[in-house]
Amino acid sequence: MKTSARVGIAAGAAALLCASLAVYAANGPDIALGKRLHNQSCLACHNPSVYTRPNHKIRSLAALRTQVTGCRQAVGVHWSPAERADVIDYLNRTFYHFDEGSRHHG
Ligand code: HEC
Question: In the CATH scheme, what is the code of domain 29-96?
């Protein structure tokens, strides 16, 4: 099958990364896990009201990914690509509601 052939080639290049992406793609987002990871690491500087403040600055899914990456690096917490995607999905589905289009990889 075409898809698995592509995954196989990519996995050769970056086995770990692609393995976790494949698991993520197979299982879909885990919003509960995303929320848990978020609440463990992301409430030190702001609470979730920052996501819904009237002039909140995030206006697209791409901007949300960038912001989460920036804030995650500021916290110094390490998440797998799947965990990162779960946090982004949690934030998007709970607060931002951007159109997700095709599945993203965080
Ligand atoms: C070191 C302090 C700090 C921590 C910890 C932190 N953030 Fe932030 N975050 C900020 C600041 C400061 C802003 C506001 C930036 C601005 O207003 O320009 C912000 C804004 C945001 C926004 C944009 C809000 C908007 O206006 O739409 C998102 C999304 C976000 N943070 C996600 C996270 C996530 C996810 C985590 C956990 C990984 C996290 N933050 C942890 C400092 C932090």
Answer: 1.10.760
